[in-house]
């Protein structure tokens, strides 16, 4: 009887310690990470995580929010293309994608559903950076790895994968200051309201305009990172304000420039994202006075997020916050076949690769995927 009680107590202790291990989330350990050239810590103060190793194959879900623009559609296609690569596919029992729109509660519910359904990892492009704290705690208690990318989460208890979004805004702002020496009025086409990317990029742009000491005014419109929406709101702004000295777009860059062309507005310096259509227009109209800077973040961020989740599931060390490099090109360095593609669709983000992570996609590889 005593032996039975002892065995029962030992078993209970083991189960309890396992539960506490999950409840505590990942173990914080010393770096460096696995594949340090890919998994670069955000700062020298970034923590490193080590999750308990799990045996595959794994069930991984992508819980996307907003879907109504080219970047998000290409992101989902990129995720599917990455999941179909033989070495990745061999690790996956299931890969599922859901998009819940701009409804934050619906996105939270979808993540909770994946946790309750026993998925091993959930990848999120968060609609709101502060809304997922309770979800992160649930994921850690359940032993589910949560990786946020692009629009990340304000928490150091989940993994974040991103480029320096504020730094991208600062790059655009500095370029505009340099190319509009006397100051002036800037059309700023913003993204999806309430997201961390929109806020960070906007703050980066405005910080550089203000720091210049020159007289800059901004007219802000909401383009939702979408060409059609950006073209309409840019056209409305031109109709009301008549004249701009510069333009910048977080996305929907092609639509923004087309609005200026349709309005017969003189070309002004443009600092915007990496859409193929935008770069085609920059190259085609360079001789007409369209001077451009194109910088941004390829949708292949999602592939890095999936790779991060798989690495963590193997029990390898990864940073809590991973910093990815920016890609950019400026006038007069737009070259067909190198950094834009005249024979490809406008609705494609160029630079959709992260070579340091072994991730590189052709346009054909991505566009051949379903956006469902």
Automatic annotation (TrEMBL):
InterPro entries: Peripla_BP_I (IPR028082), SBP_2_dom (IPR025997)
CDD domains: PBP1_ABC_sugar_binding-like (cd19998)
Location of the protein in the cell: Cell envelope
Main location: other
UniProt keyword terms in alphabetical order: Signal
Cross-referenced Pfam families: Peripla_BP_4 (PF13407)
Signal sequence annotation: 1-23
Superkingdom field: Bacteria
Residue span, Periplasmic binding protein domain: 60-315
Family affiliation: Belongs to the bacterial solute-binding protein 2 family.
Name of the molecule in the record: Ribose transport system substrate-binding protein
Species in which this protein is naturally found: Labrys monachus
């Amino acid at each position: 009887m005593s032996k039975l009680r002892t065995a029962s107590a030992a078993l209970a202790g083991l189960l309890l310690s396992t539960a506490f291990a999950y409840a505590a989330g990942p173990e914080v350990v010393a770096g460096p990470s696995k594949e340090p050239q890919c998994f670069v810590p955000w700062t020298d103060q970034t923590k490193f995580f080590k999750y308990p190793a799990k045996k595959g194959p794994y069930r991984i879900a992508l819980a996307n929010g907003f879907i109504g623009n080219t970047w998000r559609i290409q992101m989902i296609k990129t995720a599917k293309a990455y999941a179909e690569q033989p070495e990745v596919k061999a690790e996956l029992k299931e890969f599922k994608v859901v998009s819940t729109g701009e409804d934050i509660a619906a996105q939270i519910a979808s993540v909770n559903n994946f946790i309750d359904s026993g998925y091993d990892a959930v990848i999120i492009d968060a609609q709101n950076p502060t809304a997922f704290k309770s979800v992160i705690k649930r994921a850690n208690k359940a032993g589910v790895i949560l990786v946020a990318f692009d629009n990340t989460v304000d928490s150091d208890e989940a993994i974040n994968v991103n480029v320096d979004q504020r730094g991208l805004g600062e790059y655009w702002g500095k370029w505009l200051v340099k190319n509009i020496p006397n100051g002036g009025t800037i059309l700023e086409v913003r993204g999806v309201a309430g997201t961390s990317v929109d806020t960070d990029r906007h703050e980066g742009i405005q910080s550089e305009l203000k720091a210049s000491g020159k007289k800059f005014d901004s007219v802000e419109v909401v383009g939702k990172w979408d060409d059609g929406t950006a073209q309409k709101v840019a056209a409305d702004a031109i109709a009301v304000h008549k004249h701009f000295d510069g333009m910048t777009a977080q996305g929907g860059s092609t639509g923004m420039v087309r609005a200026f062309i349709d309005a017969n507005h003189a070309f002004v310096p443009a600092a915007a994202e990496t859409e193929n259509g935008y770069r085609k227009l920059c190259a085609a109209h360079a001789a007409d006075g369209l001077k451009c800077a194109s910088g941004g973040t390829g949708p292949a961020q999602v592939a890095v997020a999936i790779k991060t989740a798989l690495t963590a599931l193997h029990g390898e060390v990864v940073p809590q916050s991973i910093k990815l490099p920016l890609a950019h090109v400026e006038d007069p360095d737009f070259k067909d076949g190198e950094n834009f593609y005249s024979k490809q669709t406008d609705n494609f983000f160029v630079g959709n690769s992260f070579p340091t992570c072994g991730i590189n996609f052709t346009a054909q590889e991505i566009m051949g995927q379903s956006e469902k």
